[in-house]
Amino acid sequence: MMPLYKFLANKIHARENCAKKMETHRERYDRHSEDIEAAVKRYLPSGGGFDSGTHLDDASNGEKLVFNTSYHHMDENGNSEWTAHRVTVRSSLLFGFVLKISGPNRNDIKNYLAQVFDAALNTDTDSK
Asked: pLDDT tens for residues 3-20?
């Protein structure tokens, strides 16, 4: 068992190494990609306002995870608005990781996003 953020960082790093020797490591590269995609789909926010899900950005690497997501805000009158956000995760010697969330802070959404992503990224995965 390991927290999701470490699992993703390890898999991304392993996939980067496989990419350097694609002619002999294509199968492993594909397996790492499938594992990453499955973990993002399983553990990261989707639905409940995150109607478009969460997607791992190509800017991610073994030292930094970058996610793109959007949140669907609804008011009491049924009016709605979407806000787009980029969540960047960097390792921290003191805290395990730190989050940086870009995009508008409508209805104090960044605090909510931080709580949701913190919980998801600290979830123990059942993968190796």
From this structure: 999 999 999 999 999 999
Identify which of 1, 100, 80 has the alpha carbon closest to the alpha carbon of residue 43: 1
**pTM of the entire predicted model:** 0.90
Instruction: Please give the Cα distance from 117 to 128 (Å, whole number).
Output: 21
- Residues in Cβ contact with 3 at an 8 Å cutoff, skipping those fewer than 6 apart: 96, 121, 122, 123, 124, 125
C-alpha to C-alpha distance for 94 and 86, rounded to whole angstroms: 23
Nearest to 73 by CA among 50, 90, 93: 50
Could you count the other beta carbons within 10 Å of the beta carbon of residue 99? 20
Max Cα-Cα span within the chain: 58
| The token pair that represents 99 in the structure block | 């989050």
